[in-house]
Design goal:
The chain has 326 residues and is α+β, with helices and mostly antiparallel strands. It is built from eleven helices and twelve strands. α1 (22-38) runs antiparallel to α4 (87-94) and α10 (285-299) crosses α11 (303-318).
Length: 326
């Protein structure tokens, strides 16, 4: 199934382009990054000719606060929080080196459908586009024209606007079918104008992203969270118990009151804070995990990312124990 905006004669494997001068490359990447930011899309630097973020150069578990950005923010600052539309910040970054362009989907209000092509000669030659087209037909729908990027390996990125209502959509891998992934909150894509391993990502259709079709939004909606039972932590009595109880309440409020896009970071900070109390002997690790998990579920975070973030924050907090006087 082909579509009017789809080039049926496009080769599956694009030859590597001839090398260009470094100055020209930096200028082109800067112009592309500024163009994406003008659309309201949040960008951040990728390692030159690579998919990996250029900054930070360390995971949250290993953050010591020595990175000036992390120190200024008072917490680990990952690529999603560093993504920006500020033209001055973008000029400073992309004037220095030929960084690739990462586009943070969540802050940009985007859901990107990633359609792959088979590596080598697959048994039936089906592509991600074929899979998506069959899925659309099964829902008596089509694939309308939207902002489209051709990837370095001749796959396709279809950009859609994230729904204004309903749950925050996350990344998926194979949920819609083979060779079809999606990137949304917590995910990023390599933007047009970049290259990976010498293969450029090029703009295939320049138009405003279409709204994510309702049938796709329904298929990508996360499963409802299981019912949560209230967590009761027996801290005893006295000044120490009152202090720890106040600390728990403050961190729970921090998580449940966080805005969309910042909830996972708020959970990490709260896990670090309670992890310090755990390491100091004022709070049991099981109790800290239980109250943070309940707060995360109340905020709408998913179980897998919740468990990972809490464990990471507790480990970081354990490196800086906090004693509480009795």
């Amino acid at each position: 199934m082909r579509h009017r905006w789809w080039r049926a004669d496009r080769p599956r494997h694009r030859p590597r382009p001839p090398p260009t001068r470094l100055g020209d490359t930096v200028t082109d990447l800067l112009a592309a990054a500024l163009g994406h930011a003008e659309r309201g899309w949040h960008v951040f630097p990728l390692r030159p000719d690579d998919k990996r973020p250029a900054f930070p150069d360390h995971p949250a578990d290993d953050c010591t606060g020595r990175d000036p950005r992390c120190r200024a923010a008072g917490r680990h600052l990952g690529w999603e929080l560093r993504a920006t539309t500020d033209p001055d910040r973008i000029r400073r970054a992309w004037s220095a080196r030929p960084y690739g362009i990462g586009l943070a989907c969540g802050p940009s209000g985007l859901v990107v459908v990633d359609l792959d092509v088979p590596k080598g000669n697959g048994p039936d030659g089906s592509t991600g586009l074929d899979v998506l087209a069959e899925l659309a037909a099964a829902h008596k729908a089509g694939i309308e024209a939207t902002y489209t990027v051709t990837t370095g390996r001749c796959g396709t990125h279809l950009y859609y606007r994230h729904p204004d209502h309903g749950p925050a959509l996350r990344n998926t891998a194979g949920t819609l079918g083979p060779m079809v992934d999606t990137r949304a909150h917590g995910g990023y894509v390599v933007a047009a104008g970049s290259a990976v391993a010498g293969r450029p990502y090029t703009l295939d259709l320049d138009t405003d992203p279409a709204p994510l079709p309702a049938w796709l939004a329904a298929l990508l909606a996360p499963a409802p969270l299981p019912p949560q039972r209230p967590v009761v932590v027996d801290l005893g009595t006295g000044r120490r118990a009152a202090y720890v109880d106040a600390a728990i309440r403050a961190q729970v409020a921090e998580v449940t009151g966080a805005t969309s896009g910042g909830r996972n970071h708020a959970l990490y900070r709260s896990a670090v804070a309670l992890g310090q109390l755990v390491a100091g002997g004022a709070l049991a690790e099981a109790d800290a995990t239980a109250v943070l998990t309940e707060a995360a579920h109340t905020a709408g975070l998913r179980p897998v990312e919740t468990a990972r973030t809490i464990a990471s924050g507790l480990r970081a907090g354990a490196r800086r124990p906090r004693k509480v006087a009795a």
